[in-house]
Amino acid sequence: MVRSALRGAIGAGFMVAAMASASAQVLEIGADNGPTGLDPHLITAFPSFMVVNGNIYEGLTAIDKDLKTVPGLAESWTVAPDGKTYTFKLRSGVKFHDGSDMNAEDVVASIKRVQSKDIASPLASRLAAVESANAVDPQTVELKLKEPSAALLSSLATIAIVPSAMEANKDALQKAPVGTGPFKFQEWQPNGFILLTKNDAYWEKALPKLAGLKFNIVPESATRQVGLSNGQYALLPNIDAATALQLKGKPNVKLAETMDLAYTLIGMNVSKPPFDNAKVREAVNYAINRQEIVDAALFGAGVPGGPLSPALKSWALDVNQFACYKPDPAKAQALLKEAGVTTPVAVTLKVLPRQDVKDIAQVVQEQLNKAGFKVELVNQEQGQFIQDWRNSNFDMFASINAGQPDPDEYFYRTFRTGGSTNVFKYSDAEIDSLLDQARSQQDQAARKTAYDKVQQKLACSGPAAHLTYGTLFSAMNSKLQGYDVMPNRSLMLLRNASY
């Protein structure tokens, strides 16, 4: 009740006046798509992620630009010798955007909310090892684990802390987010813009430096490019290679780049024919020429890749270790014959509405059609694509998904039986066992051995044909300073930016 009253007390006139006094410092961002929602425990799409992650919301931990786990809302933590009890000391003086204090009860409620079956968070698998969360005192949280979880600290960076009153609320945060981050939500005009304003009560006193962030929804790439060139927009985040090439060398425009953690893939529904047959899934991989995809769809700005990004040098296997990554249409046709399916195999391929993904899907369609398939492309708007994806309503889909610093954060929720984003309906006892072993091990070498086996099996017969990892570009006005591109596509470092 108190938090609702505080939110209601913020008058529109006050906010407009505050914005007018600092309008020159609001960073104008050109985004290709608008978010489908703003609830940090429910969102799955990049347009939502880039608005809320690290800007509106924060976790107990955070991931820095080198992909290392660092303190977030927890200033420190201790781990019991058996690896099954984590005790977090929270920062003092942290407030939610509605003016209320953030304390241990909010952390506990946030963890329970993600674990709740009623909320059905796609992040739930990241907390599968957590047995209980308890508020020891207002500034101390204790997590009890069923078994050790090597990836827990990294995973907690993705679990946003929300007000405890939201624990059972499925709807409120989708349109009116309330976090602790450097920027707070002000306005959302669907298909127009989302406006965030500076959080003057942010716990890190010198930040943010900008008065706000305005995400302008501009689907046309050419319009965004013109807007950047003429100063209408100061930042085009996470652009594709084609756009980067067109902007290279433009006056007052600078490009920043890094290796992307995000992966492109062709997903397959293994709960129904023909992809319930592992030989058909293997045939898909042999039919695909990944270097051709890099050259044709990514303009050479990327590399063929397996289940893990080459940016994760201590984890990812070289693609040359996967036999099925050597293109062989004849081998693909032979596998389809062994599978006993009628050729050509007619399937639909649903496509995420991004230009790079559309380009990739067209190349893949051509490749598969030469190897015994008959692929129909289905281009959908973003909301429908995500709904069908969540409901496993597809034969195949083409998409780009966010990678994570620790393999557990991707593999466990995606490929373990019953995982919270296992939309493929995939189930394999050996994979389950390996993922459980890797999650509970603290020894890096032992985890590496397990994940090597997981990659080897998933690469050729898993439910996802991983394709490429692109070079991640952001284009910005040369006056924008202090902003770094992160491999996980987060815009959290905008808190350090000035313009």
From TrEMBL:
Keyword Transport among UniProt keywords: yes
Keywords for the protein's UniProt record, in alphabetical order: Signal, Transport
Entry keyword annotation includes Transport: yes
Leader sequence residues: 1-24
Coiled coil (UniProt feature): none
One Pfam match: SBP_bac_5
SUPFAM superfamilies attached to this UniProt entry: Periplasmic binding protein-like II
Solute-binding protein family domain segment(s): 69-420
Compartment(s) where it occurs, according to its Swiss-Prot or TrEMBL record: Periplasm
InterPro entries assigned: Peptide/Ni-bd, SBP_5, SBP_5_dom
Family, per entry: Belongs to the bacterial solute-binding protein 5 family.
Name of the protein in its database record: ABC transporter substrate-binding protein
Native source species: Microvirga arabica
